[in-house]
Amino acid sequence: MFGIGLPELMIILVVALLVVGPKKLPDLAKSLGKGLSEFRRATDEIKSELSDNQTYQDIQGIKDSFQETVESVKPQALLDTPPSKKDQADKPEPAEVKTQPVEDSLDKTAKEFLESGSSDEPDESDKADKTNV
């Protein structure tokens, strides 16, 4: 424990017996034992507090690093950012929808169809196609 062997321990006990006396030696040993057990209990308590504190510090460190990571990514900023001028310059202007020329071409096609004199009766070529099938 302290590097004291059996011969050294015997010498210490003999000196203690001569100094304290045989009547008080058992009381002294009892008090010494209680003091050592109290000292051991206190050191164990301090060790557990330090290890709990170390665990708490580790958790705080992990929490801080997680918050730094989230702040560096800035998810809210990614979602809320308006497009930059560069992004707007890269995008083509939206094409204007011109409905009037389309309507005009439809009207023209409808007039041509009506003027061509289409009838409900099929042409001679249509009749030949149906008979060959």
UniProtKB/TrEMBL annotation:
It is a single-pass membrane protein. GO terms for molecular function: protein transmembrane transporter activity. The keyword Membrane applies. Its main location: membrane. It is found in: Cell membrane; Membrane. The keyword Nucleotidyltransferase does not apply. One of its GO terms (cellular component) is TAT protein transport complex. Residues 83-96, 105-114 have a biased composition (Basic and acidic residues). It comes from the Bacteria. It holds the Pfam family TatA_B_E. InterPro entries: TatA/B/E, TatA/E. Gene3D superfamilies: 1.20.5.3310. Residues 74-133 are annotated as: Disordered. Forms a complex with TatC. Part of the twin-arginine translocation (Tat) system that transports large folded proteins containing a characteristic twin-arginine motif in their signal peptide across the thylakoid membrane. Involved in delta pH-dependent protein transport required for chloroplast development, especially thylakoid membrane formation. TATC and TATB mediate precursor recognition, whereas TATA facilitates translocation. PANTHER family: SEC-INDEPENDENT PROTEIN TRANSLOCASE PROTEIN TATA, CHLOROPLASTIC. Belongs to the TatA/E family. This is Sec-independent protein translocase protein TatA. It comes from Dethiosulfatarculus sandiegensis.
